[in-house]
Design brief:
With 412 residues, the protein is α/β, with parallel strands linked by helices. Helices cover 27% and strands 20% of the residues. Helix 1 packs parallel to helix 2.
Length: 412
């Protein structure tokens, strides 16, 4: 069996793994072996639905050495007046560019696509079936919070053979001839699907939206980079701290954040029970509110030809109804663990909703610090949110990290 020796073994060549590797290249002379099941870098972006975009500005994403953003402000569309949002195709091409033009020419990166990490020092070549051993000083898990792929998602409900149920990736191919649409899911993928239909002139009355829980949404206008957006972005931060200082309880805090336009909701009459960090513009929110037929009858249990069965009742369907599965959770919910644990590094978010920034900073810590306790103190994972009041947990974790970073001159 072949044995490959390296300084860092990085499991996963998605955005997080590449951001970590990029900083190791910049800050050290170490060698990296990167393994990925897929045939190309970029992780889940290789399987993204065709109309997906980033929901935060492109400037906040990608690897540190190579700018993803072109520094443009969108002049049209629902993101008008704000920094550009890269499309899924642009993001996938960007990661291929980083691999081809930065990683491989360095001579210090060995990228092995179509290769699965089996554990216990063994990897398998999926093309040949052969295995090889890896000896590494550090094993970096860039897959701990695995991204769930809508195109590959297995729904939790049953579907009658004669009913039309599709993953969101196939939506553009099913618009022609559809009588109406049932969008299943309350997250950002479902919002993208609804907006895509509306932008393509589908009457909102032909859309029914199964939304078991409503969500608090981050206002994109409050998360813009650059001096031109200083008033909105830092004004939003000021409003956030004022709300935290004045709030009597968690619910009051959320009310104050909404009153300050930091958080948005879609239905003014329904109090959101969920917060997953989805970010939208106010124009997108206005479009989504055009869909009046929102179904709040629990989770879908079965899709039939003439009905959809939910926890608390049924809604009618026809042979011409296209049911769109947007129910995949964006990431796998797992408990936070220590980032640094002996020779193992488990990449997690240490600044909430900025996964590539987090991975890059973790790499910087590993290069510049020897003491594991100090590294873990500076990289406390922010828990992934679910219910609305989890906004508090994730922001407190991020602020505590920010404070600790500010006390270290080089890191600051």
């Amino acid at each position: 069996m072949e044995t490959v020796k390296t300084d860092y073994l990085v499991i996963g060549c998605g955005a997080v793994g590449m951001a970590f590797a990029d900083t190791i290249l910049e800050e050290s002379d170490k060698r990296l072996l990167i393994l990925d099941d897929r045939a190309a870098p970029g992780g889940h972006w290789n399987d993204a639905y065709p109309f997906v975009t980033l929901h935060q500005p492109s400037a906040f994403y990608g690897v540190a050495s190579t700018e993803l953003s072109r520094g443009r402000v969108d002049e049209t569309g629902l993101n008008k007046g704000m920094m550009e949002l890269a499309t899924g195709a642009e993001v996938a091409a960007y990661f291929q560019q980083v691999l081809r033009e930065r990683f491989l020419p360095s001579g210090r990166v060995d990228f092995r696509p179509l290769t699965r990490w089996e554990g216990d020092g063994v990897a398998r070549d999926l093309a040949t079936g052969e295995t090889f051993r890896v000896e590494a000083d550090r094993v970096v898990d860039a897959t701990y919070f695995g991204t769930n792929i809508p195109a590959l998602h297995t729904p939790s409900f049953s579907v009658d053979e004669a009913a039309t149920m599709i993953p969101v990736n196939e939506l553009p191919r099913h618009v022609a001839g559809a009588e109406d649409f049932v969008i299943i899911g309350g997250g950002k993928t479902a919002m993208d699907a609804v907006i895509w239909l509306l932008e393509n002139r589908v009457d909102p009355d032909r859309i029914r939206w199964v939304r078991n829980r409503d969500s608090y949404l981050m206002n994109r206008a409050k998360t813009q980079p650059g001096d031109d957006f200083f008033a909105d972005t830092f004004g939003g931060q000021v409003a956030t701290f004022e709300a935290m200082g004045a709030a009597a309880d968690p619910e009051d805090l959320l009310d104050r954040l909404e009153a300050a336009n930091v958080l948005l909701r879609l239905d003014p009459d329904v109090r959101p029970q969920m917060f997953h960090g989805a970010t939208i513009s106010e124009d997108e929110a206005a479009q989504l509110r055009r869909v009046k037929n929102v179904i709040r009858m629990g989770y879908v249990q079965r899709i039939g030809v003439d009905e959809v069965v939910l926890d608390q009742g049924t809604i009618p369907a026809t042979a011409g109804t296209v049911h769109v599965d947007c129910s995949a959770c964006a990431v796998t919910k797992r408990p936070t663990v220590k980032v640094f644990d002996g020779d193992r590094i488990t990449l997690q978010m240490i600044r909430i909703f900025q996964p590539t920034f987090s991975a890059s900073l973790i790499a910087w810590l590993d290069v510049h610090y020897d003491d594991e306790k100090a590294k873990n103190r500076l990289s406390s994972p922010a828990p992934l949110p679910d219910k609305a009041t989890d906004w508090i947990k994730v922001n407190v974790a991020t602020m505590m990290n920010q404070f600790n970073w500010s006390q270290d001159k080089a890191l600051r």
